[in-house]
Design goal:
This protein is α+β, with helices and mostly antiparallel strands. It has one domain. It has five helices and six strands, in the order H-E-H-H-H-E-E-E-H-E-E. Strands 1, 2, 3, 4, 5 and 6 form a six-stranded antiparallel sheet that branches. A hairpin with a 5-residue loop joins strand 5 and strand 6. Helix 1 packs parallel to helix 5. The N terminus is likely disordered.
């Protein structure tokens, strides 16, 4: 499932979905994408067959949970572990020109925009604030010619 299927309304705010989707598409144009859906499916399969315990899969760090709670964008799908609607998408951006913001958590739209503008890498993590599920969803890298 692509990051483009996110729901930007969070914390009771209403957002124009059309405008938010256009802004996300603009930010995504100059970025190369790596999708980690197959890795997520393999992890969930290992959990469902009993090879991994819930404690091994739902192990989000408290700082990650806090960032997801306050910065995360509500996902359009439920958590794959607990099936609750508490799944959030969170962006972490890294790059040489980032200075103080290097490795900082951003909301999804802002993270993609910053990565595109500063030629960085944006990692999108999905986090459930209820059961502590977390997984790398997608990575976006600014592409440069040459």
């Amino acid at each position: 499932m692509s990051v483009l299927e996110w729901e930007p309304a969070r914390l009771g705010r209403t957002v124009d979905h059309g405008e938010a989707r256009k802004a996300l598409n603009r930010a995504r144009r100059g970025l190369g994408v790596v999708d980690y859906t197959l890795a997520k499916r393999a992890l969930l399969r290992e959990f469902r067959t009993g090879l991994l315990s819930r404690l091994e899969v739902c192990d989000a760090h408290p700082e990650l949970l806090r960032a997801a709670r306050y910065l995360g964008t509500r996902a359009s799908r439920p958590c794959p572990m607990c099936e609750k609607e508490e799944l959030r998408l969170l962006a972490y951006v890294y790059g040489d020109g980032m200075e103080r913001d290097n490795g900082r958590a951003f909301d999804l739209q802002e993270g993609l925009t910053v990565a595109a503008e500063r030629e960085g890498i944006c990692y999108v993590v999905e986090v459930c604030t209820d059961c502590s599920w977390n997984h790398l969803s997608e990575a976006f890298r600014a592409r440069t010619a040459g």
